[in-house]
């Protein structure tokens, strides 16, 4: 038997033809003698193809290599599918896990959100409480401010009423005294006089706006410092000069302590020279400014002087007498009230008589803006607590608490008690007063008496 050599394509053609041939073979069973088995190698067939020579009937139940290959093919396909399914199962499992994780995470997120919401709620409540507190506090501040303003207004009102009352007191003191005298006259009692007549002059305007009173300061305090009148100077002030005018002419134009020795005086004394006022050359004979020195003293004290040259002092009647008889002198009285306003009373001439005439005061004509209160003391002798030379039945120095050229008793006393604040309350007019400037119950803050030769 000859088996023809065929190419792969030819073989395929024959395979496709095979069913029809087989059909023919069924129709004509006897005419078909042989069957064909084709092997289709995957590779290109180069050599001869062998075919079995056995009868087709015997071969029916035989498993051919082709079948095995088919089965293998199917198996491998199924295996691949299984692998793929396995892969899909694996992937699905991962997804399930992932979904589980996500669910868990979502639950966590939910609880976290709830927590945050609660927190936020608390925060909002707290903020609202805070703002309520703040509003309450603001309200209280506003109330306090309003109360403060109300009190300030009330205080102002009271101050005004007090100042009005103080002015009334000043007037009424005079009136009461008059009535007291009238009573005494009416009922004819002959008791010791209650006090000197009070000053009648009540100025139209009080020079202050404060009306507080203070007790006079400790009188001995002033002696603890400063230079004493009688002590020999240790800081060697310039001098001695006849007076401050001579010191100025010698070229010393700075205000301060100088050593003076008037013609006819036995020994030099210290004094304050004022060179800053009205061309300078003024010898200060009396100065008050803080109540640090006690002016309620006896004759001897007023004769020799007392106090501190750089503060409050009285130069001494004997010194003043000796200074003023060296030539023609004029007097300047400087007054300062409690609002710092200064006024002046100037007298064209000034001198004292000797001790045997009790240092009688001799004044010229007045000019200035303080009023001529001192003129009522012109020609009067000096009176102290222990030497009564005044025109009053009692001792004016006792009622006015200082030595002065009293009349009975007069319109001014610059050697009285230094009261703080201006208007003072006292039975007698014992402050540092100048009736034409402030009245008898207004105590001046600072005063100075100064002399200078007439140009
Ligand atoms: Ca008398």
TrEMBL record:
One of its GO terms (cellular component) is fibrinogen complex. Residues 235-455 form the Fibrinogen C-terminal domain. GO terms for molecular function: extracellular matrix structural constituent; protein-macromolecule adaptor activity. InterPro entries: FIB_ANG-like (IPR037579), Fibrinogen-like_C (IPR036056), Fibrinogen_a/b/g_C_1 (IPR014716), Fibrinogen_a/b/g_C_dom (IPR002181). Residues 134-161 form a coiled coil. SUPFAM superfamilies: Fibrinogen C-terminal domain-like. The keyword Glycoprotein applies. GO terms for biological process: blood coagulation, common pathway; fibrinolysis; platelet aggregation; positive regulation of heterotypic cell-cell adhesion. This is Angiopoietin-like 1b. It comes from Scleropages formosus (Asian bonytongue). The lineage of its organism: Eukaryota, Metazoa, Chordata, Craniata, Vertebrata. The gene is ANGPTL1.
């Amino acid at each position: 038997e000859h088996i023809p050599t065929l190419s792969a394509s030819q073989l395929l053609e024959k395979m496709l033809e095979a069913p029809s041939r087989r059909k023919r073979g069924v129709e004509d069973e006897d005419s078909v003698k042989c069957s064909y088995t084709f092997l289709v190698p995957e590779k290109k067939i180069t050599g001869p193809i062998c075919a079995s020579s056995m009868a087709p009937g015997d071969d029916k139940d035989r498993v051919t290599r082709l079948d095995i290959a088919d089965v293998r093919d199917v198996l491998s396909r199924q295996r691949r599918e299984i692998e793929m399914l396995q892969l899909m199962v694996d992937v699905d499992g991962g997804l399930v896990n992932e979904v589980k994780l996500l669910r868990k995470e979502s639950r966590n997120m939910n609880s976290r959100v709830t927590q945050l919401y609660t927190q936020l709620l608390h925060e909002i409540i707290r903020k609202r409480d805070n703002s309520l507190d703040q509003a309450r506090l603001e309200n209280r501040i506003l109330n306090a401010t309003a109360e403060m303003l109300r009190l300030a207004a009330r205080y102002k009102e009271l101050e005004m009423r007090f100042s009005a009352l103080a002015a009334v007191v000043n007037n009424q003191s005079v009136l009461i005294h008059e009535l007291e005298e009238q009573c005494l006259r009416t009922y004819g009692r002959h008791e010791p006089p209650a006090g000197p007549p009070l000053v009648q002059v009540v100025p139209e305007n009080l020079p202050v706006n404060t009306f507080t009173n203070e007790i006079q300061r400790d009188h001995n305090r002033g002696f603890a410092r400063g230079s004493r009148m009688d002590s020999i100077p240790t800081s060697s002030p310039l001098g001695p000069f006849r007076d401050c005018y001579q010191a100025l002419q010698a070229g010393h134009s700075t205000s301060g302590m100088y050593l003076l020795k008037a013609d006819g005086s036995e020994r030099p004394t210290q004094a304050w020279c004022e060179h800053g006022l009205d061309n300078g050359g003024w010898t200060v004979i009396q100065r008050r400014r803080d109540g640090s020195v006690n002016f309620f003293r006896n004759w001897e004290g007023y004769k020799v002087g007392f106090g501190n040259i750089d503060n409050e002092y009285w130069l001494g009647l004997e010194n003043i007498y000796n200074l003023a008889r060296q030539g023609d002198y004029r007097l300047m009285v400087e007054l300062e009230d409690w609002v710092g306003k200064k006024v002046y009373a100037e007298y064209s001439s000034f001198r004292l008589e000797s001790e045997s005439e009790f240092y009688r005061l001799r004044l010229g004509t007045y000019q200035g803006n303080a009023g001529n209160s001192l003129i009522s003391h012109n020609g009067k002798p000096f009176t102290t607590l222990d030497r009564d030379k005044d025109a009053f039945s009692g001792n004016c120095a006792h009622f006015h608490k200082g030595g002065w050229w009293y009349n009975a008793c007069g319109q001014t006393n610059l050697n009285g008690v230094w009261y703080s604040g201006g208007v003072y309350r006292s039975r007698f007019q014992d402050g540092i007063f100048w009736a034409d400037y402030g009245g008898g119950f207004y105590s001046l803050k600072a005063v100075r008496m100064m002399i200078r030769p007439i140009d």
